[in-house]
Amino acid sequence: VTINPCKECESFKETPRTRAIEDWEYNAVYKEASDIIQIAMELASICGMRQGDILSIKLKDITDKGLAVEQNKNGAKQLFIWTPSLRKAITKARELRDVKSFTHLICTKKGKPYSASGFKSMWQRLQRKCKESGVIQERFTFHDLRSYAADNADEQDCDASKLLGHANKETTERIYLRRAKKVTPNR
Fold it and tell me: Domain of 61: which CATH number?
């Protein structure tokens, strides 16, 4: 082969989502959600975790120091140290199911971990219900909660990249920081 036919093709440029979740939207959806989805929403908004990482949390990942996580996507290891909000979410999950006999923190009544598609179906039903009843005007994805966590961290002068487990701050800024920056005028 003397030429590369792909050389002339333009590469696909995916544009990042711009949907920024406001606090009132998060709170409105949270109130309508089942206990399991509320717990997942809390973990996503507190820790910036992906859906798959939340569904993968095992009881052995909960330590005296906090919640130890290895991200499925990039293998980044994180220890989310205990905060009152994180402890409350984990306690709520433990009280919801008799988790002593289960392996996963987020699980069905029978102790089985939720599949990605099963959880996504529950999320889609919740979003449809909230939009149709006027609780929110525009639906958002579960993954948008990762951006919500990054925006909240950034507004509190915390390192959003570190929270999300990104080695590259540009990724966080380009994809996840979606809210307008709050700026104080000079006079």
Answer: 1.10.443.10
